[in-house]
């Protein structure tokens, strides 16, 4: 139930590819080039839609402009960073991109298993080995922008608490050092990375805890970072960079699905907030470049949704599709509750149980109803339990990692003991413990109970509010205005109960 194999999601070698820039020459006019790209993109879409029914096919990026940005980022890069959420890394790992980057482009691909604070260390290590085994050319880096000490139990119920930390915290990221080591191995002395090493040492020395979510970070006054905003005009074609490490600078392209934590990772590398972070998928729209140091340039690509056979409920829970845009959230709640005991974790009382301890079969609707009752969510007019709001709230808890849904590589359950005692697991625990809050008395930390933190309704509904305020947070490919007609979740079936 919790196992996930890349075969199921992408069928490597099938038409579930990503669009490529068709061949071009300098003799072509810009118009010719654009229309050629448009034609080739339509063919690409036609092949995919011809091979799979819309029920099987996941929602994916249909906006050519977004893919053009990927092309441009890949053309500029010396090293490509593919950022994935470690709770479901195969969801965020299109094998076609691996083949293209390592094969056709001949570039190094670094897989970042991100948000390692949200998964048990043994599982993180098992995923790392899974990818090494299946994709031997990868360099793999473990990362979290918001480290937690895994030695400190979060809650006896197994529900993660949300920690709020004050001050500047981006320098606390776990993983910059490992990434530097990977880049040193890749560049093998061709770029002077000593300035990066010095920067990491400075950041670690100057770091204090920041807000755990990164969303309300205070303005800080760290050293200025040179940022270049890329606009449409820079989307003009250019061949892949012929010259590696031009002017002694290594360009690292950061690519990934929406919501995998790219912006937070860049902030974590820079050591201060340079990119805004949002829980709403599809936040980053145009790519930007940041000089981490004079010899290290980061290039941030907008979130990309590659075509796959991912169940639609999992797309919601993986943060690929904005929760605020789902019309029917109950099936996704059902998907979640059939994998983790939501009602137990949240201490819910069955709506029909006369006695709190009475056994009763649960369906998704019951769980939403019970959560609405517990939270006091009422509809405005009839003051009945607001089940829709409760369903949204539950999905957000899962997305934030407070209700922990982590998928496993095949065979994990049978080998769990081996992974738990694996030396790399011990290393990861020790590393997280070192940067984690334990023993750091100067931090001001405020742990909140899950139940009370859910009260921050400003926060619960923030995504919806943000989307109402303009197009800042609206996914590039699913404009809000045409939501009803284009929302792929109208396809979802009714709740099973
Ligand atoms: N627990 C945890 N949460 C994280 C981490 N990194 C990011 N997040 C959260 O994940 C959500 C998405 O983070 P972003 O950094 O905006 O992700 P993104 O990939 O830039 O998203 P797009 O703009 O949609 O492409 C936010 O709610 C972050 O607070 C991490 O390392 N650990």
TrEMBL record:
Residues 434-497 are annotated as: Disordered. Residues 475-488 have a biased composition (Polar residues). One of its GO terms (molecular function) is GTP binding. SUPFAM superfamilies: P-loop containing nucleoside triphosphate hydrolases. Residues 439-474 have a biased composition (Acidic residues). It comes from the Eukaryota. Keywords: GTP-binding, Nucleotide-binding, Phosphoprotein. Residues 67-307 form the CP-type G domain. Transmembrane segments: none annotated. Possible regulatory or functional link with the histocompatibility cluster. This is Guanine nucleotide-binding protein-like 1.
């Amino acid at each position: 139930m919790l196992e996930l194999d890349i075969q199921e999601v992408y069928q490597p070698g099938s038409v579930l590819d990503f669009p490529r820039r068709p061949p071009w020459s300098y003799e072509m006019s810009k118009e010719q080039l654009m229309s050629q790209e448009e034609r080739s993109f339509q063919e690409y879409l036609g092949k995919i839609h011809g091979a799979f029914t819309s029920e099987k096919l996941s929602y994916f990026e249909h906006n050519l402009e977004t893919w053009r940005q990927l092309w441009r980022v890949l053309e500029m890069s010396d090293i490509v960073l593919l950022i994935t959420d470690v709770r479901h890394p195969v969801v965020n790992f299109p094998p076609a991109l691996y083949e293209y980057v390592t094969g056709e482009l001949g570039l190094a691909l670094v897989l970042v298993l991100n948000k390692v604070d949200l998964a048990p260390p043994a599982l993180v290590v098992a995923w790392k080995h899974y990818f090494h085994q299946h994709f031997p050319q990868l360099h793999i880096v473990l990362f979290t922008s918001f480290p937690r000490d895994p030695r400190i139990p979060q809650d006896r119920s197994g529900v993660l608490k949300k920690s709020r930390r004050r001050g500047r915290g981006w320098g606390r990221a776990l993983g910059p050092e490992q990434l530097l080591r990977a880049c040193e191995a890749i560049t093998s002395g061709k770029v002077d990375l000593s300035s990066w090493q010095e920067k990491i040492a400075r950041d670690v020395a100057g770091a204090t805890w920041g807000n755990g979510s990164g969303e309300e970070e205070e303005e800080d006054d760290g050293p200025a970072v040179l940022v270049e905003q890329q606009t449409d005009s820079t989307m003009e074609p250019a061949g892949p960079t012929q010259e590696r490490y031009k002017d002694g600078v290594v360009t690292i392209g950061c690519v990934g699905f929406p919501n995998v934590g790219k912006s937070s990772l860049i902030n974590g590398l820079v050591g201060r907030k340079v990119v805004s972070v949002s829980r709403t998928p599809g936040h980053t729209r145009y790519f930007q470049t940041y000089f981490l140091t004079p010899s290290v340039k980061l290039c941030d690509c907008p979130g990309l949704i590659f075509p796959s056979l991912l169940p639609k409920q999992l797309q919601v829970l993986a943060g690929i599709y904005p929760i605020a845009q789902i019309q029917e959230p109950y099936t996704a709640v059902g998907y979640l509750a059939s994998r983790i005991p939501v009602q137990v974790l949240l201490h819910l009382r069955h709506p029909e149980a006369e006695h709190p301890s009475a056994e009763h079969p649960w369906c998704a609707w019951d769980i939403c109803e019970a959560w609405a009752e517990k939270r006091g969510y009422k509809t405005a007019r009839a003051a009945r339990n607001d089940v829709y709001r409760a369903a949204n709230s539950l999905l957000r808890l899962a997305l934030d990692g407070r209700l922990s849904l982590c998928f496993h590589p095949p065979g994990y359950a049978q080998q769990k003991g081996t992974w738990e005692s694996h030396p790399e697991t011990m290393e990861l625990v020790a590393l997280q413990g070192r940067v984690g809050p334990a023993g750091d008395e100067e931090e001001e930390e405020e742990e909140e109970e899950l139940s009370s933190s859910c009260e921050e309704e400003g926060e619960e509904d923030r995504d919806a509010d943000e989307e109402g305020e303009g197009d800042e947070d609206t996914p590039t490919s699913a404009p809000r205005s045409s939501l009803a007609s284009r929302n792929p979740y109208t396809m979802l079936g009714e709740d099973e109960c």
